[in-house]
Specification:
It is a single chain. The protein has about 375 residues and is an alpha+beta fold. Among the domains are: about 70 residues, no CATH class; about 110 residues, Chitinase A, domain 3 (Roll), CATH 3.10.50. About 50% of the residues lie in helices and about 10% in strands. The strands form two sheets. It has a four-stranded antiparallel beta sheet with strand order 3-6-5-4. Strands 2-1-7 form a three-stranded antiparallel beta sheet. A hairpin with a 2-residue loop joins strand 1 and strand 2. Helix 5 crosses helix 8 and helix 9 crosses helix 13. The two termini are about 45 Å apart. The relative contact order is 0.10.
Length: about 375
């Protein structure tokens, strides 16, 4: 029964003959029931019985529009319009398929067989969402006669190259190994420059960072740093109550070089290149003792001495040996309070909020028609957040 229902559901799909945008179909079992995951057989049968009558009657709806299976839908069928700018089924499906393939081949994401339909629908929504976002903003850029100069493109490519170099990649990799064919990747890159220029012109000028904004950021950072110290105090108490110092170090220490080894440091003497407060604490402890919190430029520490080796005087045959200790530590790094950095962070947050508000305002004014997903909600794409 399930196979028959799935086959019949796959037949019920609406295509607009002639390219105009149809209203949502009266019987749209494929999109509504399968996609939403409603599996009430009685309900499905009732819906599909109506669908079958429509198919037997000549595949015509009351308004004269033909109902087709997805495989019969023409690539030239317009499925989305944004203020008159059209997206065809073929264009959408090509982008959605590219995104799907990229997720599998490049990101290692796989889908169970029974989830393939949902995955296909998800990537189609993503392709449509990106089209709507880009079209709304490019239309607005055109209204303001915004264009990207050749020099701006060169500078943007240089900036992209510097960013990619940090992950040992190149602009060739970016354009040739992205989710879409190279020509589409290059067009999308150019479009993103136009959109960024629109945001800079229409949103950036209204973003202002005031002193109270910075002070609020400073207060929030100070509170976060205090919480880090409180958490380290709690960790110290756990150790004093019997928890393993090494296990706690592996769990919370932010010294990447020693955390995996339980916080263990190399044996060191008084002239080691540690800060005086750190050395004073270490040399004041007996083996097995754990220090109070010690503060250095690196952050907050708790120290445990595991061994002490006393100094040895020089003899006729051997030089003097300085006193040394073996110790382990746990480090928690507070955030540096830099007002310039805080102001920059506040600015970027306000700019992001301004861009979102700007897009939402334009979207509210736009005429968006979507045949495949009439009730779809449009958001800022993940790669534009």
């Amino acid at each position: 029964m399930g196979g028959y229902l799935s086959w019949l559901e796959s037949l019920v799909y609406t295509q607009d003959v002639g390219g105009s945008s149809p209203s949502p179909p009266t019987i749209f079992c494929y999109n509504f029931y399968c996609e939403k995951g409603v599996c009430m057989n009685a309900y499905r049968l009732m819906c599909l019985s109506g669908a079958l009558l429509v198919l037997v009657a000549g595949c015509k709806k009351a308004d004269g529009k033909k109902t087709l299976a997805p495989g019969e839908m023409s690539p030239h069928t317009v499925i989305v319009k944004v203020d008159g700018v059209a997206l065809t089924f073929g264009e959408m499906d090509k982008r959605a398929s590219s995104l799907h393939t990229y997720a599998i081949e490049r990101e290692g994401i796989y889908y169970a067989t029974n989830m393939l339909h949902e995955a296909t629908m998800s990537f189609r929504r993503k392709a449509i969402n990106e089209f709507v976002y880009k079209t709304i903003l490019l239309n607005e850029a055109a209204r303001h006669e915004i264009a990207v100069t050749e020099r701006e493109q060169v500078l943007a490519l240089q900036k992209l190259a510097r960013r990619l170099a940090q992950s040992h990649s190149t602009t060739n990799d970016y354009f040739n190994k992205g989710p879409h064919p190279p020509d589409v990747m290059r067009r999308d890159f150019h479009d993103s420059l136009v959109i960024d220029k629109l945001f800079n012109q229409e949103v950036q000028r209204s973003v202002k960072v005031m002193d109270p904004d910075v002070e609020k950021g400073v207060a929030a950072l100070e509170e976060a740093n205090l919480m880090k110290r409180v958490q380290l105090e709690a960790a110290r108490k756990q150790i004093l109550d019997g928890a393993s110092f090494e296990d706690v170090a592996r769990a919370i220490s932010q010294d990447n070089g020693t955390a995996r080894h339980g916080g263990a440091l190399q044996e060191f003497a008084r002239d080691a290149k540690y800060e005086e407060s750190f050395k004073d604490a270490a040399f004041s402890l007996s083996p097995g003792q754990v220090s109070d919190i010690v503060e250095t430029r690196a952050g907050y520490h708790i120290i445990k001495v595991t061994a002490r080796n006393p100094a040895k005087a020089a003899t006729a045959d051997t030089p003097a040996v300085a006193e040394t200790v073996r110790a382990s530590h746990i480090l928690v790094r507070p955030k540096a309070i830099d007002r310039q950095e805080i102001a920059k962070a506040v600015y970027l947050e306000k700019f992001a909020e301004g861009k979102l508000a700007f897009y939402e305002e334009l979207k509210a004014k736009a005429k968006i028609e979507n045949v495949l997903f009439p009730d779809m909600q449009y958001k800022v794409p993940d790669n534009r957040k």
